[in-house]
What does this fold into?
Amino acid sequence: MEAPSFAYSSPSSCFLLRNKPVTLTRFPHFGRTKHSRSFSIRASSSGDSVVTLLDYGAGNVRSVRNAIRSLGFQIKDVQTPQDILNASRLIFPGVGAFAAAMEVLSKTGMDEALCSYIQKDRPFLGICLGLQLLFESSQENGPVKGLGLIPGTVGRFDSSNGFRVPHIGWNALQITMDSEILDDVGNHHVYFVHSYRAMPSDDNKEWVSSTCNYGDRFIASVRRGNVHAVQFHPEKSGEVGLSVLRRFLYPKSNVTKRPGERKASELAKRVIACLDVRTNDKGDLVVTKGDQYDVRENTEEKEVRNLGKPVELAGQYYKDGADEVSFLNITGFRDFPLGDLPMLQVLRSTSENVFVPLTVGGGIRDFTDSNGRHYSSLEVAAEYFRSGADKISIGSDAVYAAEEYLKTGVKTGKTSLEQISRVYGNQAVVVSIDPRRVYIKDPNDVQFKTTRVSSLGPNGEEYAWYQCTVNGGREGRPIGAYELAKAVEELGAGEILLNCIDCDGQGKGFDIDLIKLISDAVSIPVIASSGAGVPQHFSEVFATTNASAALAAGIFHRKEVPIQSVKEHLLKEGIEVRI
Ligand code: 1PR
It folds into this structure.
């Protein structure tokens, strides 16, 4: 068999395979010299409460920072390779794409320093891509060569067996080796978000400390001596995740193990709390909630419904057990988000105390301000990620992109959806669909995909199609939710947030016909949204559709149904959830 040709070849890969380190020699790359470099390793003298963080600026590392600080440590950012070598303990939260990360590491000489540090068995924790980069290579846009410390290739999940890719959500671990940092995890779910994974083999079995089942049994964590890496996100895995970080940071502590109430066994269905946010007439940023998208009270003043403060409510939902929190800046279509500093501040403050994934949407598009300054959607997204978002959600702009794609059949690579998913990975891009039901007598009456409805329309219609809208439901577009979902999946969306204007705020249950139609049509995860009124609506949507998550707003804001009651009900119905 022919040896693979590597899309990016790092001559500095340090090949510690089977414990046989080879000399670290660097060849000219991006203007660097050909001479071997010898690094000196010494423990940092900067005291025991400092964590050295390797952040190359490709995504949201704010949550890792916040988690470290919440555990009583200060952060020293790596500026030079020597900072890695001087570290007392190093955390490497890899974000973005494999090739881009390797290129940065190579250009800056961090690759050699990392290999050297790890070979010396210094305290190390890699997170997500920070685990994958330790392997020999990745198939992500490749093959691309990795650091070569652990035998094996990182490959993509196979979606042909019915498993949705990306693997997003809370899953269970099978612990195969005493790794100490996982002492509290055994019975609990932890949060994963990735499309690529490394597989256990005879060659790497000495490293593997836990695996996870998702179609394949893939490597969830590795450990050798003081070197650890995890595929999941401890900084996004609630209290259990914080305990992983705590055990890494305080390795000799005798913290008693957290007992698990129940044994986690598979990917849990997620319960998401959504906060629709906008500025009210007094200029305050408030959480509001619409009734079929109308957020104004039924009073003479018609003021914007005010259901609370965004940061406070998000913090409360985290404590109550929400698996994710979404913020939708619902006037983003007319207000430019980078001018909307309060929203960025909301994200920053929320991420200080909320250690589950945060999604933010509203206004993600190209924009030219009144001074003629152009901002690309990528810049808007970057600012959201820097402020603490793990995923961004695109509404109106995704509709225009899908319409254009369906008309021309050409992927330009220039739409916000394509650009953001290329840079940050498709797991970081949600498309929020705002459809309205249109009843019809005969499916041949329209060019869009129709479905037979379970309750007849007002004139006895047996069918409906779901018309997409933009600008917060204000404008109907000539595209159906089915066509949109399939198009945005091809353009790089990693997940679909499926609202339904007819059901929004009605409390009568999710639109099962719509959710079934879309969750059967795509192989990315679908979040069912709009209409939850009682816990039974959640079990119904999970039992009858392929939704991966269910989102609600009104019932949580009005404190009608606590998140915990929803989860207890789901467990009683035999549906796995994170507790
Ligand atoms: O078009 O990229 O600027 O994004 C705008 C975003 O704002 C979209 O995601 C769009 O869904 C959202 N949005 C715009 N206007 C409204 C509105 O309500 N007037 N909110 C709005 C959409 C729907 C759900 C809601 C669920 C659950 N809100 O997110 O939270 O329906 O509610 P329920 O449990 O109370 O029934 P762009």
